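Our collaborator T.R. sent over the components below with a one-line note: 'Predict the complex.' Nothing else. No constraints on interfaces, no templates requested, no preferences about which chain binds where. So this is a plain run: every listed entity goes in together, and whatever single assembly comes back becomes the starting point for the next discussion.
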Amino acid sequence: MSASILFDTPGPKARRRILAINILGALLGLGLLAWVIFGLAAKGQMQASQWDDFVQANTWKNYLLPGLYNTLQAAIYGVIGSVIFGLIFGVGRLSQNKLINGISTVVVEFFRAVPVLLMIVFFNVFFSRTLALGGDTAMWAVVAALVFYNGSVVAELVRSGVHNLPKGQREAGIAIGLTRGRSLRYIEIPQALVAMLPALIGQFIVILKDSALGYIISFNELLFYARTYTSPNGNVLQGLIVAAAIFILINFALGKLAEIVSRRLSSRVKKEKNAPVPVGVPAGLPPAAGDTPDKGTDPNPKK
Amino acid sequence: MENYLTIFTEYDIPGAFWVNIQLTFWAAIGALVLGTILAMLRISPVASFQAIGTSYVNLIRNTPLTIIILFGVLALYGQLGFNLGGEFHENFFRLAVMGLALYHAAFVCEAIRSGVNTVPLGQAEAARAIGLSFMPAARLVILPQAFRGAIVPLGNTLIALIKNSTVAAVGSVATEASSVMKTMIEFRADIVIPIFLTFAIGFVIIVIPVGLLTTWLSKKLAVAR
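Returned assembly:
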């Protein structure tokens, strides 16, 4: 979209110039790539012996996949916890009770300002002294830190999601006799949750990336395995690249998913806005027979 | 209470935060320069430039910062003998700054791009109408407005950078706050929670003014339309 702001449609002369620069840029990019690869080769990092570890089943079965499993496990616990934490404190920040509102604000602002790594280090020592979690202490420390930080971010998402809803939604809720809390629970939060789905998927990426911080407290996640496995063989560089590639693939896919969900949601909203409002049909009735559902004429698609 | 106060004489807590501020300062400059260049590449009409910018952002943004910092120490320094000069500890500090700058440049790029999107089409059309070509139009008309529109996302990136400067601990920068805190809570088991709260509040004190400043600046510098 930004490109259209900056440029006119180029004429023949500009097109030739752009093509020339384009080829130059492509050569530059490839040159950069070649420089890195040949630079690594010159340092003796491109030997098959350093890379073929990563095409052997043993490496994947005993190191990378268990590591990935632990990473994903921590991330999924982190996501579930964050959503629960975010809902509680997000609703708390919307509360009209000054005490609840104040506590929620302090909690959310505090945990958003504290580095995740600081919390991970703290929880690791704290849990190992107070709770008997055995070998899972490191994982629970990572999960707790992820929940407190990302939960606070989700709380803000919930709050802004509710604030961005049309005012009529709440007014309608109150008009049919719901209390403020019930209108929040039955009308506003469900819609806000749907609207914040893309941002929530984006937060999943953050959680997945931050779970790698567990490395510092020896949580045996993907990065930790990639490093400890390669350390004795002298191919840490290769191990880190493989670990990074796995993270990039997963996160890139999640990013694309967020884009698709966001596009779906925005097209749905547009459809609802532009949909012709059928006159005289009571809201909530199923569309008349013969109406194709994708026409968007259903005035009350969510019921 | 007295027991608690001894930690301030035993350990250099302000000094630890000072290391984080230094890491943030240098990394922020690096990230801003590289991020601006990347944003220029991504909004240029040249497909190959766009591809370079987009691949950089997609690769770096999806990689955990931990891996990037660790790569600097274990792969660049440990395995390739890459040295950024200075004495032993200075080298680790510079590698950490480099990792932080490379990582946050991707976010700076996206922040500036979102700023460019806030500039109305008419501005660019007016710039072209008075005969400015791409570079002058970008430099004189588009980017100044884009930066002003990008203050909030840039401020958020700076806040993230301040907090992420603790990840330098992975890169063997042992004098920064999270490493010092780690040592402290391992030796002073009696006051684990007060120590954590001290460091946490330290970050709150640094981060919240930056947030307020960002909000104030974005309102003050908002382009009146």
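Summary for T.R.: The two ends of chain B are 56 Å apart (CA to CA).
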